Amino acid sequence: MQMDKQDDISDDALDALFATARAQPPSMPDALKQAVLADAASVQHNLVKEARNQSATPTEGWRLVVDMLGGFLGVAGLATACVAGLLIGLSPPGVFADPEVWAIFDTALPVDSFDLADVFAEDIE
């Protein structure tokens, strides 16, 4: 939508309108202001009272964690995965090289002897 030259308001006119609006700030009736503040105070008081009545016990904290993990089935699955990862990490199956060898010797992995050109050359023939 384009503005016509006739509808265009100059910056000076806008500045004058804004200055007039700033000079006369809107006022709220005192009765309304007191009612709003009294209502806010009662709501705050009720929230504080409810928070004090609902102090968390140690068992409620654990229940919250268990619920966040998906209940007891989720906790059981997480524990099983942790134990399996620990056992595989401590005694890896024979198909994997020992991680200690990787950490001690840099030449334990035969990376230098593997060439992708040889692999692709077999597929091309």
Describe the biggest sheet? none
- The topology string of helices and strands comes to HHHHHH
Low-confidence stretches: none
Helix content: 55-70%
Q: Could you tell me how far the N terminus lies from the C terminus, measured between alpha carbons in angstroms?
A: 67 Å
What's the rounded overall pLDDT mean? 78
Strand percentage: under 5%
Helix/strand-derived class? mainly alpha
Number of helices: 6
Broad shape: flat
* Radius of gyration, CA atoms, in whole angstroms: 37 Å
Tally of strands? 0
Structural commentary:
The protein is an all-alpha fold. The protein has a domain of about 45 residues. It is built from six helices and no strands. The longest helix has 24 residues. The model has no long low-confidence stretch (mean pLDDT about 80).
Features of the shown structure:
flat, 0% strand, mainly alpha, membrane, transmembrane helix, 125 residues, Dihydroorotate dehydrogenase, transmembrane
Short description:
The mean pLDDT is 78. This protein has helices at residues 11-23, 30-53, 58-68, 71-90, 99-104, 116-124. The protein contains six helices and no strands.
List the helices and strands and how they pair.
Blueprint: H1 11-23, H2 30-53, H3 58-68, H4 71-90, H5 99-104, H6 116-124
Protein name: Dihydroorotate dehydrogenase
Transmembrane segments: 69-90
Keywords: Membrane, Transmembrane, Transmembrane helix
